[in-house]
């Protein structure tokens, strides 16, 4: 029966075979650099490839003196070192002691040529970059439906915001037909009027990522009306799509972090904005209320009704003062009038007494001069028939009827004659 070996024993045996092979212990291999990783420890991991095959390689930090330039993706290099087996995984790789440039790789030259052409056309200019929406709710994704990229994006989107709707276009992201599939996906999702597009895939060699270096894909990204985030490979991978897109994310996971806003933070921000808005509104309302009160007071002070009321008040005050003045004047005048009335009463009483005395005196005199008084003393009053007084012989003629009024009656007489008495004046001396 054949012997049975452990995996460790087999890997160790194969490693010894490699180490005993002189050609493999000091070999120089020419190829194009791909999957280049500068590790934090100082080690450099990369892949050497040609059109048909590839081999993993590593240069440890202790061997870095054998590298005199900065390695980049796509460079054509000659690597001298030893091929041996890594027992833990059973894989063989090239352990580099010296790396020299042997010219640029074909893919790298194509990359640089297209990059230069598109740069000169202005397709990388910031003026054409569309802003990435802060609160995208409908996000389109152009990537493989079976790759790790879509799973990472879905997980991050579910964690950050379960209300965001994702639209996947299952595109080929590697191989000869990948560029056409990616272009169709971009144009299909762009026509849906979504908020944002993510175009990309997980890491790989420059050959694996080459579809995102094709001019057709770059133009589809540039011509899209929807903002595009490029998320191709790992952080150190760079493609033409990264330069044309509106934003570059180092990985698909990072693209999801950038594209999907965090709902909890959004809710907190919304609450803070609501509080600030209420505070501003209340402050504004308080300021407007104060201003309104001031304007109301101003308008009240300047309003015609207010002025009329003020005029009425002033008129009423003036009327009261006038009434008080008139009352005081009337009281004063009344007091003066009463004083004058008393004075006038005294004067009138005095004058009345004086007039009464004068009247009495005049009455006595009139009584003495009255015809009736004289009549009582034997005199009479003569009146003609026409009731005219007869005071002279000239007033009557013979035959006239006359009446003589005496003390106790009337005597009617007939004039027989009327003679004028002759009176002689006696001269003095």
Write the layout of secondary structure elements.
Elements: H1 7-20, H2 22-25, E1 27-38, E2 44-49, E3 54-59, E4 75-86, E5 91-104, H3 106-120, E6 138-143, H4 148-160, E7 165-170, H5 178-190, E8 196-201, H6 215-223, E9 228-232, H7 240-244, E10 247-248, H8 252-259, H9 263-302, H10 304-369, H11 371-376, E11 381-384, E12 401-406, E13 409-414
Short note summarizing the structure:
This protein has four domains: 7-104, Nucleic acid-binding proteins (OB fold (Dihydrolipoamide Acetyltransferase, E2P)); 111-261, 3-Layer(aba) Sandwich (Rossmann fold), CATH 3.40.50; 264-301; 372-414, no CATH class. Helix content is 45%, strand content 21%.
Query: CATH superfamily of the largest domain, please?
Result: Succinyl-CoA synthetase domains
CATH architecture of the largest domain, by name, is: 3-Layer(aba) Sandwich
Spans of at least 5 consecutive residues whose pLDDT stays below 50 are none
The portion of residues forming beta strands comes to: 15-25%
> What's the N-to-C terminus distance?
231 Å
Domains counted in the coordinates: how many? 4
Number of strands: 13
């Amino acid at each position: 029966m054949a012997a049975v070996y452990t995996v460790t024993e087999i890997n160790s045996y194969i490693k010894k075979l490699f180490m005993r092979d002189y050609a493999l212990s000091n070999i120089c291999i020419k190829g194009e650099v791909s999957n280049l990783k500068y590790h934090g420890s100082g080690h450099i991991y990369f892949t050497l490839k040609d059109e048909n095959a590839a081999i993993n390689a590593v240069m440890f930090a202790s061997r870095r003196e054998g590298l005199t330039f900065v390695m980049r993706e796509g460079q054509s290099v000659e690597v001298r070192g030893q091929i041996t087996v890594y027992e833990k995984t059973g894989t063989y790789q090239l352990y580099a002691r010296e790396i020299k440039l042997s010219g640029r790789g074909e893919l790298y030259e194509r990359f640089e040529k297209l990059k230069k052409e598109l740069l000169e056309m202005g397709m990388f200019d910031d003026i054409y970059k569309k802003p990435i929406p802060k609160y995208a709710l409908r996000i389109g994704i152009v990537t493989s439906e079976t790759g790790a990229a879509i799973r990472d994006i879905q997980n991050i989107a579910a964690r950050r915001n379960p209300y965001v709707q994702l639209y996947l276009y299952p595109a080929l992201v590697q191989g000869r037909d990948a560029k056409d599939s990616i272009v169709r996906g971009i144009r299909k999702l762009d026509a849906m009027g979504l908020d944002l597009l993510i175009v990309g895939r997980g890491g790989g060699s420059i050959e694996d990522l080459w579809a995102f270096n094709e001019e057709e894909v770059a133009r589809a990204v540039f011509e899209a009306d929807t903002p595009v985030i490029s998320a191709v490979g790992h952080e150190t991978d760079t493609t033409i799509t990264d330069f044309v897109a509106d934003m570059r994310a180092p990985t698909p996971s990072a693209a999801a972090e950038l594209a999907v806003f965090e709902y909890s933070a959004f809710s907190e921000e919304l609450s803070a904005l609501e509080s600030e808005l209420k505070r501003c509104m209340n402050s504004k309302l308080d300021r407007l209320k104060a201003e309104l009160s001031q304007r109301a007071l101003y308008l009240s002070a300047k309003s015609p009704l207010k002025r009329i009321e003020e005029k009425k008040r002033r008129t009423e005050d003036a009327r009261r003062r006038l009434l008080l003045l008139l009352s005081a004047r009337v009281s004063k005048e009344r007091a003066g009038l009463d004083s004058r009335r008393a004075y006038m009463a005294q004067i009138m009483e005095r004058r009345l007494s004086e007039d009464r005395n004068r009247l009495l005196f005049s009455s006595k005199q009139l009584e003495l001069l009255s015809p009736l008084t004289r009549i009582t003393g034997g005199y009479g009053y003569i009146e003609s028939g026409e009731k005219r007084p007869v005071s002279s012989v000239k007033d009557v003629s013979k035959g006239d009827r006359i009446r003589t009024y005496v003390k106790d009656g009337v005597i009617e007489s007939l004039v027989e004659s009327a003679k004028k008495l002759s009176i002689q004046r006696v001269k003095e001396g």
